[in-house]
Design brief:
It is globular, with a radius of gyration of 23 Å. The strands form 5 sheets. Strands 1, 4, 5, 6, 8, 9, 10, 11 and 12 form a 9-stranded mixed β-sheet that branches. Strands 15-17-16-19-14-18 form a 6-stranded antiparallel β-sheet, sandwiched between helices. By secondary structure, it is of the alpha+beta class. Strand 9 and strand 10 (181-187) form a beta hairpin. It contains 16 helices and 21 strands. The protein is 34% helix and 24% strand.
């Protein structure tokens, strides 16, 4: 059994800006957070925007159309492959809560291994609809348009190596519409690739974002072998990834908040009363203090949520005794039992609200939003009965849950900022 991550450099497919236009108008955020209006706006600004390939909607068969467009763009020179194998060092610079941060990693190819081998590890559950869509796109394009985002544990050496290789001016640099600065450096020295691949030889990779695409890439590799389209060692045995040190000071994880809707006979007062069994329940007069109070409890290592069901005020729920989780979920590792989302799902949503796991997965009475303002607004507009605002999951918790061979509830993490799509692509042929 191989137990090591195998990485390698590759000849990336990139936009030729002289033919296709300004790189700012050619890239876009990940396909799964783009609305149809946004998609059309990107194509209106530049018909060569990568969204045309990554989220095809045109033609009788959009997937087939994407394959034909890709071929046409290669032929006309709008997209061309780098002459040499490269490692691509990618940095994002951004501002969160008034603090400017940078996160840097390396885009390379990683050999596909099933999760069961314990080399590449998932950290949360996935939904199957998205996998069918991505598989159809891969069948007609033979290309990775966006990179999977993975984390690794560094002894410091890789970060030093990447910093030394990106000390000069980047090959590309631009600021997107959200004010995030993107920089890309190309490293063509085979000696650097050799050092990097040795450094990764005994590391595990933890998927931060892109579980669906990873599972799809495995499925596609198997499909190509069955159909006689590939042999072991060919391009389809690898997938493009962005690898970032888990201890990188620039790494930011946002929480994903929970909205409850459509529960029959929902009574918020009664719901809060039942919470007293496990939680200290404290009413607060103003929403202005939510962030500050949750952050303070997060820093103190406490499990706490804001419960909101309309009006000016909110209720702070703080778990009284963490050991209750050991009794209720003895089969899970301490890492999984201690997650804020596990506490909320197990004690409140399942036990007190009667929303079971299947219901959560089908998003019947539970939906997810990224922004606290969005959650509050949904309750105020009557779209949801109540909202739970959460603290973010810690990066160390992601590592510990994945290392225990477990998965978090879906929508446990939101890495910010997302990686941009279209800076570099991986042609599998």
């Amino acid at each position: 059994m191989e137990t090591m991550a195998q990485i390698k450099a590759f000849r990336g497919l990139r936009f030729n800006t002289e033919k296709a236009g300004d790189i700012r108008t050619l890239t876009c955020p990940p396909y799964d957070i783009i609305s149809e209006e946004q998609r059309k706006a990107y194509l209106q600004a530049n018909p060569h925007n990568v969204i045309r390939l990554e989220l095809p909607r045109e033609g009788e068969d959009p997937y087939q159309e994407a394959g034909q467009v890709l071929q046409a763009w290669k032929e006309e020179g709008a997209l061309s492959r780098d002459e040499q194998d490269c490692l691509y060092i990618y940095e994002e610079e951004f501002t969160v809560k008034g603090v400017t941060r940078k996160v840097k990693g390396v885009i390379c190819l990683v050999k596909l291994t099933p999760f069961s081998e314990g080399v590449v590890l998932p950290h949360e559950f996935t939904l199957s609809k998205a996998k069918t869509d991505r598989f159809n796109l891969m069948k007609s394009t033979f290309c990775n348009f966006s990179q999977i985002y993975s984390l690794y544990m560094d002894d410091g050496n890789t970060r030093i190596l990447l910093d030394s290789q990106s000390a000069g001016a980047p090959a590309q640099e631009f600021t997107d519409e959200e004010g995030i600065v993107h920089r890309l450096w190309l490293v063509t020295d085979p000696a650097v690739t050799a050092v990097l691949s040795r450094q990764f030889a005994d590391r595990k990779l933890y998927i931060a974002d892109g579980h669906h695409r990873y599972e799809t890439a495995l499925q596609f590799r198997d499909y190509c072998r069955e159909q006689g389209l590939s042999r072991p060692g060919d391009g389809v045995d690898y997938v493009m990834m962005m690898l970032v040190d888990m201890a990188h000071p620039g790494l930011v994880v946002f929480p994903t908040h929970r909205l409850v809707r459509g529960l029959p006979d929902f009574d918020p007062k009664a719901a809060l009363e039942t919470c007293r069994e496990y939680f200290d329940v404290a009413a607060r007069p103003s929403l202005d203090t939510v962030d500050e109070e949750l952050t303070a409890l997060y820093d103190a290592g406490k499990k706490a949520f804001a419960f909101y069901c309309g009006g000016e005020g909110w209720t702070l729920l703080t778990l009284k005794d963490a050991s209750v989780m050991d009794k209720l979920l003895p089969e899970l590792s301490p890492a999984s039992r201690g997650l804020d989302v596990t506490v909320l799902h197990t004690l409140v949503l399942e036990r007190l609200f009667g929303i079971d796991k299947e219901n959560m997965q089908n998003q019947k009475n539970l939906t997810y939003v990224k922004l606290a303002e969005e959650a509050v607004s949904a309750v105020q507009k009557g779209e949801a009965q109540c909202a739970f605002l959460l603290n973010p999951t810690r990066v160390t918790e992601i590592r510990d849950v994945a290392a225990a061979g477990e998965k978090m509830p879906q929508k446990s993490t939101y890495f910010y900022p997302k990686l941009i799509t279209g800076l570099v692509m991986n042609d599998l042929r």
